[in-house]
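To whoever is on call:

I kicked off a structure prediction for a single chain this morning and the downstream step that reads the tokens threw a length-mismatch warning. I double-checked the sequence; it's 245 residues and nothing unusual in it as far as I can see. Pasting both halves so you can look.
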Amino acid sequence: MLGTGLGQLASEITDTYEFPYQDIPNFPISTVEGHSGKLIFGKLGGKDIMAMQGRFHFYEGYSMKEVTFPVRVMYELGIKTLFVSNAAGGMNPQFSIGDLMIITDHINFFPEHPLRGKNFPTGPRFPDMHETYDLSLVALADKIAKEKDIKVQHGVYVGVQGPTFETPAEYKMYHLLGGDAVGMSTVPEVIVAHHCGIRTFGISVITDLGGFDDPVEVSHEEVQEAANKAQPLMTEIMREMIKRS
């Protein structure tokens, strides 16, 4: 599941079958620049994969059921492992723009929960969330990054509704609450994947920084540019993870 400006990995998929979202019954349509809106089936790292080139967001006006519907489709198609990427704002003073942050946990600030309503039989009514991001996949990513001399950070991802970028005070608050990066996606999809028993690995590209003494303005175009620059490193880690997992 590839986020803003992070669609390069899809170009490495071979033996592809591509389906535009608008051609798939009941699928939402991605409306955000940087999300091309295609479901791709093929091979990567010698494995059969399904890739979402562009995702859906709560801020686009979709319900949580619509945002997470593709994960339900993945489950029905037999997907066992979900790799998810996003562009995020960094709040940790140790981070720099362009860093890759392996997600170790998240904080859910979305106003609606993706499991609200009748429980799907894919998991329990009250799922445990202690290891939402698979520790063995995190360890594998660390090993590959070390082998390839790629700098990675670890951190907690804060999921918020958007679509405004955070105020300086909000950045500081989220960091005080334990967050290292903040974004407008990922958390709903990961919760549903976890509920379905799908192993999950997440990585954020730090595309802007906030919450420090010198406020920095940010635009969507700058986020896309930073994500594009970091893409090759993220792609290298994910490609090798898929090959080995």
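Update from on-call: the warning came from a stale cache, not from the record. Cleared it. Sanity check on the structure: The mean pLDDT is 88.
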